[in-house]
Amino acid sequence: MTCGNSMKNVQIRRQLTWADKALIGGLLLLSLGSAPVLWSLRQEGRTVQIETAGRVYQTLPLHASHTLAVPGPLGKTIVAIDEGTVHVVDSPCRAKICVKTGEISHTGQLIVCIPNHVVVRVTGADTPAYDAITQ
């Protein structure tokens, strides 16, 4: 069984030309080189918008300390804002993915608790109301 797998690997390596390898290497370098640029373009958030059942529940400044109990169909989701970050402390949902998401602080980041219909979104002062414009 191991011989069969190693033979397949050798055949795949023989099928790759130097141009294929150069293309793969170039794409890898391009993606690694663009990561620091994209990372530096992230904007610090200014406000936290909390939604429940598709409606804005409350909007608060990100650089203040607040703890909120946001109502949802399953119960209350506890959201904490502290020192420029926001995170979900506890939620009545089963998987607790919203809690495991951790802290967020940059414009556009969000935490979603789908079972309890709660969305926590970091926004900035100059966040546009649209994603793209088409003609």
TrEMBL record:
The record's Pfam families line, in alphabetical order, gives: NusG_II
InterPro entries, from UniProt? NusG_2_sf (IPR038690)
Protein name stated in the entry = NusG domain II-containing protein
